[in-house]
UniProtKB/TrEMBL annotation:
One of its GO terms (biological process) is peptidoglycan metabolic process. Keywords: Carboxypeptidase, Hydrolase, Protease. Belongs to the peptidase S13 family. It comes from the Bacteria. This is D-alanyl-D-alanine carboxypeptidase. It holds the Pfam family Peptidase_S13. It comes from Neotamlana nanhaiensis. GO terms for molecular function: serine-type carboxypeptidase activity. InterPro entries: Beta-lactam/transpept-like (IPR012338), Peptidase_S13 (IPR000667).
Length: 419
C-alpha cells in the first residue's frame, strides 16, 4: 500500500512539473515577439521517455545548418574510424587512384597528404576524378554566393578544400601557389570573376580570405602538375571496382571541425564520401536515400532532404525528426565522444558567444542560420543532472537573429534551472 502511495505521489509530482513547464514556456512563445514568425519547439527526456514540451513539433521548417545533424548521423553510420582518403590499384610502377570525395587532401586546416605520399612512390600516376554523379552545386543554392567562402563546389577528389586561400603580410600569399599568378589586388567587393579562376584581393583587405575554385579539368591538371610534375595523367571512370582503400585522418577530427564552424563544404563532401562505402560511383543522393530507407525508416515525419550542408531552402525538417535523430545518436555514441563533436554553448564554434553556462556548459548543439531563419537542436544539461534533447526552430522572422537567440536563451536557462 505504501509503495502505491509513493508511486502516485511521484506521478502527481511529475504531472505538476510537466504542467508548470508547459504553462511557462507556452506563455513565453505567446508573447508579441513571436507573433509574426513560425516557431516549433520540442523537448524530450530520454531517461524517462517523456515529452517535456511540444509546440508545432510535427510541422516542417527550413532547417539551414541543422541539416548537418543528419549528415553527421549518416557519416557516423557509414564511415570507418579513419576517413577513406581514396581508392587505388597498382600495376608495376603505376598507381591508379580514384576519388572518394575526401575533403581533407591538402586542405588548409587538415593538410592531409596521404594521396601525395603514396603517389611519390610511383613513376606514373593515373587519377580518376569524374566518378561523381552530383552537380557541383546543390539544388536551391543561391547563385550569387559563387565567390563566398561558404559555397565551394562539390567534387570527387577535392584539393585545398576547393578554395584559394589568399592573405597578405609583406606580399600576397596564395594557396595553392600554382594560382598566385591568377590573383590581382584591386578595389572591388567581388572576390572572383564569375565562372573563372581569376581572383581579386581588395587592397584594403587585412584578413585572409577563402574563395571557391571553379573545378574543371584545366584546373585539376594544373594543380596535380604542380605537386607531381610530369607524373600524372587522367582517365575516365569505367565503373571498375577498386578493392584497396587508403585511409587518412581520424573521422572524428573531421566531424568536430565541420560541426564547430558549420563548414558547408566538409558537410557536403562527408555525404559524398559516405557514398563511397556503398559504390565506386559517388552520389550524395544515394546516401540520403539509403539512410532514410534503412537507419531512419522510423522517422515520424520523413524530411525533404536535398543536401548535406543546409545551404538549400528546399530542405524541410520537423523538430520531431531532429529530436529522433539526436536521440539515436545519444543512445548509440558514448556521451563524452558525442558531446565532443557538437559546439558547446559559451565555449566553442558557432555557440561561443551564446548560451553561456554558470559554472559549466549546459548546451551542446548545432545551430542553423539562413536569412530570416534560425534554429538550434541538441542537448541541454539541467541543474538537476538530467539531459534533455531539444529542437527549437524559428522561421520567417523579420527582427534580428541576435534578438531571436536572446529569447531562446531565456527559455533554455529557465529549463536548465527548473527541470
Amino acid at each position: 500500500m505504501k509503495r502505491i502511495v509513493v508511486l502516485v505521489l511521484i506521478v502527481c509530482a511529475s504531472a505538476c512539473k510537466s504542467g508548470r513547464i508547459t504553462k511557462h514556456i507556452s506563455r513565453q512563445l505567446e508573447t508579441p515577439f513571436y507573433d509574426n514568425q513560425f516557431t516549433g519547439f520540442l523537448v524530450y527526456n530520454p531517461k524517462t521517455n517523456d515529452t517535456v514540451f511540444s509546440y508545432n513539433a510535427n510541422c516542417y521548417f527550413t532547417p539551414a545548418s541543422n541539416t548537418k545533424i543528419f549528415t553527421l548521423y549518416s557519416a557516423l553510420e557509414l564511415l570507418p574510424n579513419n576517413i577513406p582518403a581514396f581508392k587505388y590499384k597498382t600495376d608495376g610502377d603505376t598507381v591508379t587512384i580514384k576519388g572518394t570525395g575526401n575533403p581533407t587532401f591538402l586542405h588548409p586546416f587538415f593538410n592531409d597528404s596521404t594521396a601525395l605520399n603514396l603517389c611519390k612512390n610511383y613513376s606514373h600516376v593515373k587519377v580518376i576524378c569524374n566518378n561523381l554523379e552530383d552537380e557541383k552545386f546543390g539544388p536551391g543554392w543561391a547563385w550569387e554566393d559563387y565567390d563566398t567562402y561558404f559555397s565551394p563546389e562539390r567534387s570527387s577528389f577535392p584539393m585545398y578544400g576547393n578554395v584559394a586561400t589568399i592573405g597578405k603580410t609583406d606580399s600576397l600569399q596564395v594557396i595553392p601557389e600554382a594560382l598566385a599568378q591568377n590573383v590581382t589586388e584591386v578595389l572591388t567587393r567581388k572576390r572572383r570573376k564569375y565562372n573563372q579562376n581569376i581572383f581579386y584581393y581588395n587592397k584594403k583587405q587585412q584578413d585572409t580570405i577563402e574563395v571557391p575554385l571553379v573545378i574543371d579539368s584545366t584546373l585539376i591538371k594544373q594543380l596535380w602538375q604542380a605537386i607531381l610534375p610530369n607524373k600524372v595523367s587522367f582517365q575516365n571512370t569505367n565503373n571498375e571496382s577498386f578493392e584497396q582503400v587508403a585511409y587518412g585522418i581520424s573521422s572524428d577530427s573531421l566531424y568536430k571541425h565541420m560541426m564547430a564552424v558549420s563548414d558547408n563544404f566538409l558537410a557536403e563532401q562527408m555525404l559524398i564520401m559516405a557514398s563511397s562505402t556503398l559504390s565506386d560511383t559517388l552520389s550524395s543522393q544515394r546516401v540520403r536515400t539509403h539512410i532514410l530507407k534503412h537507419q531512419l525508416n522510423d522517422l515520424k515525419q520523413q524530411p525533404r532532404w536535398v543536401d548535406g550542408s543546409g545551404l538549400s531552402r528546399y530542405n524541410l525538417f520537423t523538430p520531431t525528426s531532429f529530436v529522433q535523430v539526436l536521440t539515436k545518436l545519444y543512445g548509440e555514441i558514448p556521451r563524452k565522444r558525442l558531446f565532443n563533436l557538437f559546439p558547446v554553448g559559451g565555449k566553442t564554434g558557432t555557440l561561443k558567444r551564446y548560451y553561456h553556462g554558470n559554472d559549466a556548459p549546459y548546451i551542446y548543439a548545432k545551430s542553423g542560420t539562413v536569412g530570416n531563419n534560425y534554429s538550434l537542436s541538441g542537448y541541454l544539461i539541467t541543474n538537476s543532472g538530467d539531459t534533455l534533447i531539444f529542437s527549437f526552430m524559428n522561421n520567417h522572422y523579420r527582427q534580428s537573429t541576435i534578438a531571436v537567440k536572446h529569447h531562446m536563451e531565456t527559455v533554455f536557462e529557465w529549463l536548465r534551472d527548473n527541470y
